[in-house]
Amino acid sequence: MGKSTFMRKISTLFLIVFGNVLAWAQDPQFSQFYANPLYLNPAMAGGALATRVTANYRHQWPALDANFITYSASVDTYLPRINSGIGLIVSRDQQVFARFNSIDVGAQYAYQLQVSRRVAVRAGIQFSYVNRSINYFGLTFGDQFDNRGFLNIQSIDELAQNPNPAALNYMNVSAGGMVYTSRAWLGLSAHNLNRPNQSFVGTASPLPTRFSVHGGVKIPLDDNTRYGLAESKTAPERSITPAFQYRAQGRFDQFDVGMYLTYEPVVLGLWYRGLPIKQYERGIYNNDALIFLAGFKQGGLSIGYSYDLTVSNLGTSTGGAHEVSVSYEFPPARPRKRVPRNVKQLPCPKF
Fold this sequence. Notes:
mainly beta; 14-stranded antiparallel barrel; two-stranded antiparallel ribbon; 50% strand; globular
């Protein structure tokens, strides 16, 4: 075995092991986080003031064995008589290299309150049922390798002797809040508040709470957009939207910052993910990806595709990440010329 081949195998093995630890310690992430509003913040349930269905797909590091596939689907609606939104979200995360699957089914409730003529607040809560499973059969363990590579022997690890998948079920609690105007918003969400035990082997391994702070401002480029935002009315949108998200879970954190250019029906976006001022180890900085977005937005339909270009030490050989989002907002049964003052639509982007 040549030196370069050996180093590639060692690097891949390190990535698999490190990725396994990282993945189990963290919840899945979406680059188009505003295209998955119920996953981002329970306070967003019903925020479109309409019935909305959303589907999301993400494939991270497709060029490696250590890849992740995440699906999400949700439906939410607004109940005007009680100023409330309700939602249901189902997510599935597959960590292919570890034969690890997680399915999360969550129900959400959010209440909306107009505190002044311009400012509204929302508060939401989510209760979830989570199933996690792992199939040990076919996995390789540390005692099956030496400096020559894979030994092709059976592992003495008891887990490797079990061909059946292990399963874990638990309840999860999350909450969030939003304050916003017709053009700007700021939100905070906290998932895994009860810190459920995620261990398969009986030891205590509480899932860390995932915090997210997100916000932005929508800058209209014409009078029609300005009027549409102020009156919560649908109008061809021409805008620039700087936005951000800071995310922290356990020892890990990330910062997403970027901008959308909306010129309906086209939406373009450019994002950076990372914390370049932070070092995990000497010479290893928290740089993750540049994210490129192209979207289509017409009426109630929004379709987006984004690609994560890896800029970390892992390099472009990972294949980056591909993400697709589809959302549709159903028109109201009885269209109103003007939305009441005690009701304000969230101005967040669709992607």
